[in-house]
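Researcher: Structure for this, please.
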Amino acid sequence: MIDSGSEQPAGSPPVPRTGILIAIDEDPQPRIPVLPKRFFPPIPRVTPQILFPDRVVCFNDHLRIHRFIGAIDSAQFLVYADGACFDNGRDKPKAGWAFVFKDSTSDRPTKGRISGRLETTALTGEARRPTGRRAELRAVIAALQYLYKDCDTFESVVVATDSAYVVNNAIRLLGKWSSNGWTNLSGNPVQNKDLWQDLLRAVEGWAKKNREVYLWRIHPDWNGEADRFARLAVTSRPLPIDFGELRGYY
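Model: Predicted structure, token format:
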């Protein structure tokens, strides 16, 4: 305790009127974001269909989960994600996204397939022009949001996409962008900042339950079903009025 009425030495900082010195951290450490990790298949050139076959696994003797579940690690599952954009870079582009998390059946051809039109606004309400890159990134975000409850069953998720834009930037640059005020290495604003921030929030949601998110860049031929439904969404799904967060479980 300091007597606030006592004389202060010359050049000393002012003492608060309460008489209590308050320590102020003038250089706080920036918060380190939780980032997705790159998935490295244990067998070179193995397809995701072999490494993550469609199957049903029982948990806790009663819970049956149908997913693309790891053949080597049954605590890990995979989801395919892709985006599509018609008239990309032209006057009136339209885009869609989709993800696939289990095989369909003859009586339910859309089972395990979730898709939607890409919003033309950001979460903040600002207008955003549809592009193929935004659609690819939106597909990954939607998959992590929709399958969030799988955190209670699995220890990690692998999002398989053929988008080099999503995987390379998420692994190599996303952390730097976040800590650098969302400017790139050239000092310019990061493109699609709103979606990159949404991706960080989605990954951090999984991390709060001690679950890890991996990204696996796969060949486009291995991602045909997600691509097909993303393209179908462009022409068959209504345009959302606002940007929405996807929640669901089935």
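Researcher: Any notable elements?
Model: The first helix runs from residue 48 to 51. The beta strands are 37-38, 54-59, 63-69, 76-86, 94-100, 113-117, 156-161, 212-217.
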